[in-house]
Amino acid sequence: MARTRMVRRWRRNMEVLDDTEYTTMLATLSEGSVRRNFNPYTDIDWDSPEFAVVDNDKRWILPATDPLGRHPWYQAQPVERQIEIGKFRQANVAKVGLQFELILIRGLMNYASWLPNGSPEYRYCLHESVEECNHTMMFQEMVNRIGADAPGMPRVLRWLSPFIPLIAGPLPIPFFFGVLAGEEPIDHTQKMVLREGKSLHPIMERVMAIHVAEEARHISFAHEYLRKRLPHLPRRQRFLLSLHVPIVMRVLCQAIVVPPRSFWKEFDIPREVRKELFFRSPESRQFLRDMFGDVRMLCADTGLMNPIAKLMWRICKIDGPPSRYRSEPQRGHVVAAA
Ligand SMILES: [Fe+2]
Ligand SMILES: [Fe+2]
């Protein structure tokens, strides 16, 4: 009996046609994907001379918005070394991004395969997958051209990655929180770098601008998906979820933002520097907190912030005030791909 109820609830979760506001939002996002999309090989002129990766190009030096880039240890290194580290670090961020997107695509496929006929979510999930496929090609091309053999995520996560998308079918809500845990930090860091205005290598600049422009839709979808479902969850489930969310945010963010062990070894970076950067110094703590203002807002608005959940956010060191609106505070504008 309980099982039938569970299955019924799971099916009902996928019926959205009676919610006009939600279906209109999905239609807008889908139309946006048709009108404004990028192809990694026609919208980026990889073979033009200005895109060439050449030795001693200072534009690969890490920007000050990167925690390592602004660290005195990094800044005291000889220029060639700063360039080498910068190339590896930026290639690794792209590799992590594409590995995360490969998980996301597989999850979206799992979820979409259960959707009933006529569901507008089907179309949008597929649009998003197409865009993510393009992003993975774009990021891999960038890694190949930089020429640093970046491993991406920590090894444990790479091994776990085939299993994570399996939850998207039976447990879409925790899955979409996982999506936010990956997309928010990547998007936040890319926007910060673009806004800093430092002269970047054209590959980096173009790839990031395209990515930020398309991610805006993906993040909107994940937020709206959750906003629609969370308030109707049974109390107990909502409570469990409220404790699970900060943990997922912290764990995934850590995997995405912190370079893997091989990076520190390869460049012989002192342990102290690593500890300070991730996340002992006050600036790095703030950087960590700032990434999740929008998720805290989502949780506060949908009944996922109770005293114990707040404590959990604090233990995970990502507590703080919720944003007042999406992309607040310094993130007021979305940098559009030219
Ligand atoms: Fe993406
Ligand atoms: Fe995305």
Automatic annotation (TrEMBL):
InterPro entries: AurF/CmlI, Ferritin-like_SF, RNR-like. Gene3D superfamilies: Ribonucleotide Reductase, subunit A (1.10.620.20). It comes from Mycolicibacterium agri. This is Diiron oxygenase. Pfam families: AurF. Transmembrane segments: none annotated. One of its GO terms (molecular function) is oxidoreductase activity.
